[in-house]
Amino acid sequence: MVARDGVEALDYLFGTGAYEGRDVGLLPQVVLLDLKLPKIDGLEVLKRLRGDPRTRRLPIVVLTSSREEQDLIESYDLGANSYVRKPVDFARFAAAINQLQMYWLVLNESPTITR
Which CATH superfamily is domain 6-107 in? Predict the structure, then answer.
């Protein structure tokens, strides 16, 4: 699932708006979160996800082009599980996504999220 902005991401994860009625018991195994989202930025999305018991333990990887130290600090302070700077080169970006997929979907053990 790809959300185009922060509102769409929250609507999808919480089953609101255009996703009203979606089975919110089916959460993704990991969220790749860009900080530079339109409408609601990634830090606010992260804050809302960590503030809700339904998504508090959902693995969230901040995947951003930001080089701001404050973004890194705030992401971890708000509960990000990882912070990855997006490579600009497409081949390196694809390799980074493959490594994230291998770690978060194959190697990492996450607690079961219950509703």
Answer: Response regulator (3.40.50.2300)
